[in-house]
Specification:
Structural class: mainly alpha
Shape: elongated
Strand content: under 5%
Number of strands: 0
Order of helices and strands: HHH
Distance between the termini: 40 Å
Oligomer: single chain
Largest sheet: none
Number of helices: 3
Helix content: over 70%
């Protein structure tokens, strides 16, 4: 919810489909003092979610453009 994201200090630009994965990732980062090798599983899950969300948006835009071209 918006309250959870606000309390976890997630900025508005990052409040997307994958924000639920960003909360535990940021908690892990803070606990490990942002060590690059820490939190690998959480980072991978978040980046994978972001990638698939991007692919869905690109496919939707292509579908929209194809529909416009057919008119």
């Amino acid at each position: 919810s918006q309250e959870e994201l606000r309390s976890a200090r997630i900025d508005l630009a990052s409040r997307d489909f994958c924000a639920h994965l960003l909360v535990p990732l940021n908690e892990c980062r803070r606990k490990s003092l942002y060590m690059p090798w820490a939190c690998g599983a959480q980072r991978h899950a978040y980046e994978k979610c972001e990638y698939f969300d991007y692919k869905k948006r690109v496919a939707a835009k292509e579908k929209e453009n194809d529909a416009k071209e057919k008119k």
